[in-house]
Design a protein that fits this description.
Largest sheet: 6 strands, antiparallel
Number of helices: 21
Shape: elongated
């Protein structure tokens, strides 16, 4: 098979175009590998018309390769039939017929004149002593193969130019990549063994890394924040080694970070690296090279002279941003991204995912500062701060103040700043008090929030949740009237109580976001929309029928005593727990399927029996499940109130194993109906946080500690939870709200009446200070146990 190139030189292709073509080609190959038969036309539509001719050539060559692997005969007419509008381009490729294929494959490798300038390679082909095994990927002008070194008996990666007659620019960049990588010796940089040439093909021999690149891994599963910090700390160390050698990578991105089977990162692809002694022959001022989503502003402007190691620091910050949030800092077409990189700030990571530790967000945004001098000066400094985060030490970076953020916007957009100043003067002319009110709303983020209920007409009350602990603040509750409502509220999380005239009610959680169109989370209580008028529209509240409470047990109000032995200097408290209704057993898979129309449970990775075992889920999933059931999650005090009831809890050792819901005869408390599994079966989520930690000086040294990111779980086989110290069944343990474990489920409760006054919430009746001479060392920041009385 012979393919002749079009007249367009490949080295003149802008890097951003090549990046898009790479991504489309990767998706095309993924489709073939998954057993599907992709159509060229559907993939051609994913790029602009001006780029389709070049993409067509790449897709045709890939299609030929995969079709021949299946033993098919490929003919030019196949493509003319599917893509008649590209007839001229297909004929220009001069595809050989199937009968010519074997003859072409047996040409003498040394006869350069007999070979096409551009060809498709196949497994079992040889380049010198290297036998091609599997094509790992392709780029704008080359491809990477897994190969077997027949002399040294090992697998290697071969990176080769597809053009047998490459332009001088292509050849120079290829050689520079080999030279840059070969002079570096670091455990997190892909080692280069040699550069060679065979039958007109120049190729680089590298160590074969068994695994995927970081970009592909992130598309399937976003790493945890600490894992993201560990990966980026290792890459930062590798980049410092490159910078010490006078090399700036300039194209650091997830696709150029390879991950082996042990999750060790390796920096690859130094194809557009800049050397300290670059004379300008390879990089022309004003030329934009790299990948827009990860470019530093100076790189996006084409300011070659300003590109230095801090450019890679920015790119690594952008990589960290994507690992934390699941998306690149800027998105859209290349031109829009380049403009945004230079002029706009990316959304703060925690506005996209509140679970991201603040210190990690601070490190990320410090690395991505627009001005190079405001970033970390070196990759080593960035890596050191990441290591401090991992060790739980205070980091050196500090978040930007509001004055700094405002000044940066003024410097980047003086015309906008001047217009804003003029507007302020105009408002001042209309009335000083009016302008102050508007300014106050802008500073506090007050916005108009819309909410409806089903049925309509419910009286709605918003109870703010503490920003630090997530606990309700009933003293600040706000009655806003009958639905549908439109009310100005400050950003934050709220408990929302909706009550119909007939007495039906529901208590749910809702989030009012910071101003701007940040990406909402997946679960109903964390979502919102922005309408055409710029108002924030919260998800509708569906109020359940009264029958939802028929099978629940009534628990009368009663005080409980709390003693925290792990924190002996914390006060002992007596709290009154208002009466509530409680489900007799933990939530089951069968119940979930009822509210989700037969669908499988959220996060139900361990349990397959539909009606037997409790559901494993994260805290936010549990909140969503309870709301859909017409109920809510209990507080820690409400579960402790259950433990005061008489019953049978003698065989607690038997409770260490997870058992069927509702069956444990050795674990029940007296109510009507009886309540099972208070201490056995699975542990249960609560809406509570450990009150004793608020304002605790001992928590300040622990990086990323945000109380609102944690919740108490109570009861169940806690002693069996992976990675946790042994603790008595029934203890209270604080875990991340994203905890997902087969022995962690939920139990639903309801208030007896809607909570519309502070007296309807848990109230502290008595507080007794503990002796001051008791030690108070903090051993573990994530696990605290309570003594059950």
């Amino acid at each position: 098979m012979i393919v002749k190139p079009s007249n367009q030189p490949r080295d003149q292709t802008p890097r951003s175009v090549a990046e898009r073509i790479d991504l489309i080609c990767d998706a095309f190959e993924d489709s073939w590998r998954s057993g599907q038969r992709p159509t060229l036309s559907s993939f051609l539509q994913q790029t602009m018309p001006s780029e389709q001719r070049q993409l067509l050539r790449e897709l045709v060559m890939l299609d030929i390769e995969y079709r021949r692997r299946q033993g098919e005969t490929v003919r030019p007419d196949d493509y003319l039939t599917e893509l008649p509008e590209f007839a001229d381009e297909i004929r220009a490729l001069e595809l050989a017929s199937g009968e010519d294929h074997e003859a072409t494959r047996t040409l003498d490798d040394d006869d350069d004149d007999a070979c096409s300038s551009l060809r498709v390679r196949a497994p079992e082909e040889y380049l010198a002593q290297f036998r091609l095994v599997e094509r790992l990927g392709s780029g704008g002008s080359g491809e990477v193969w897994k190969a077997w070194d027949t002399q040294l008996c090992r697998h290697v990666a071969l990176k080769l130019l597809r053009d047998l007659q490459p332009s001088e620019s292509q050849r120079q960049r290829f050689v520079r990549e080999a030279r840059a990588a070969a002079c570096l010796r670091h455990e997190n940089i892909v080692p280069v063994y040699e550069i060679d040439k065979h039958a007109g093909t120049v190729f680089i021999v590298e160590e074969f890394i068994e695994g995927d690149d970081l970009g592909k891994q992130c598309r399937t599963e976003r790493p945890a924040p600490r894992e993201a910090a560990r990966i980026c700390a290792a890459v930062a160390d590798a980049m410092q080694a490159a910078h010490d050698a006078g090399i700036v990578h300039r194209d650091l991105k997830p696709a150029n970070i390879l991950m082996d089977r042990q999750c060790k990162p390796f920096v690859a692809d130094f194809g557009i690296a800049k050397w300290a002694d670059d004379s300008g022959q390879m990089t022309i001022a004003g030329e934009i090279i790299g990948t827009p989503a990860y470019m530093a502003p100076e790189q996006a402007r084409g300011d070659v002279a300003a590109v230095d190691p801090r450019t890679d620091v920015y790119a690594l910050g952008a990589v960290l941003y994507q690992l934390l949030t699941g998306q690149a800092p800027f998105q859209g077409e290349s031109a829009a991204m380049l403009h945004a990189v230079v002029h706009d700030e990316p959304p703060a990571p925690r506005t996209l995912h509140a679970a991201i530790p603040r210190d990690l967000e601070t490190i990320c945004l410090r690395a991505m500062q627009k001005e190079p001098r405001q970033r970390y000066a070196t990759a080593r400094q960035l890596g050191d701060d990441l290591q401090r985060f991992l060790r739980g030490e205070p980091i050196h970076a500090r978040p930007a103040t509001i004055v700094e953020r405002t000044w940066r916007k003024v410097r980047r957009r003086p015309a906008v700043a001047l217009a804003a100043a003029s507007l302020v003067l105009l408002l001042a002319a209309c009335g000083f008090a009016f302008s102050l009110a508007n300014e106050n709303r802008a500073l506090t983020g007050i916005q108009t929030v819309k909410l409806t209920t089903e049925p309509a007409g419910a009286e709605v009350t918003f109870v703010p949740l503490s920003a630090s602990t997530g606990e309700p603040q009933p003293e600040k509750m706000l009655h806003v009237g009958a639905s549908p409502i439109a009310k100005q509220l400050t950003p934050g999380d709220y408990l929302v109580v909706a009550v119909l005239p007939d007495g039906r009610f529901h208590e749910v959680f809702r989030r009012v976001p910071e101003p701007g169109r940040q990406m909402p989370a997946s679960y109903l209580h964390l979502r919102w929309q922005i309408d055409k008028q710029g108002n924030t529209v919260l998800p509708q509240i569906r109020i359940p029928e009264k029958e939802v409470s028929l099978d629940m047990a009534h628990i009368p109000d009663n005080p409980i005593e709390l003693v925290w032995e792990a924190h002996p200097r914390r006060p002992k408290e007596v709290r009154r727990v208002p009466a509530f209704l409680c489900d007799p057993a933990e939530f089951t898979v069968g119940q979930f399927r009822k509210i989700r129309s037969g669908r499988a449970p959220i996060d139900n990775r361990w349990i397959e029996r539909p009606d037997e075992f409790a559901l494993a889920s994260t805290y936010d999933a549990a909140v969503a499940i309870a709301e859909a059931s017409g109920k809510r999650l209990p507080s820690m005090e409400e579960l402790k109130r259950l433990e005061q009831l008489p019953g049978n809890r003698t065989a607690q050792q038997a409770a260490a194993a997870i058992g069927p819901v509702g069956i444990p005869a050795e674990d029940w408390v007296e109510a009507t109906p009886r309540i099972y599994g208070v201490r056995s079966n699975v542990a249960e989520w609560t809406t509570s946080l450990p009150f004793w930690l608020e304002g605790d000086e001992r928590t300040k040294g622990f990086v990323g500690f945000q109380m609102a990111d944690y919740r108490i779980i109570k009861g169940g086989a806690l002693a069996n939870q992976p990675g946790r110290p042994q603790s008595a069944v029934g203890d209270s343990i604080m875990v991340s709200r994203f905890e997902l474990s087969p022995d962690l489920g939920l139990r639903c409760v309801r208030s007896v009446r809607p909570r519309l006054s502070p007296e309807d919430f848990v109230v502290v009746l008595e507080r007794t200070e503990q002796p001051a001479n008791v030690g108070d060392s903090l051993v573990d920041t994530t696990i605290w146990s309570t003594t059950d009385n």
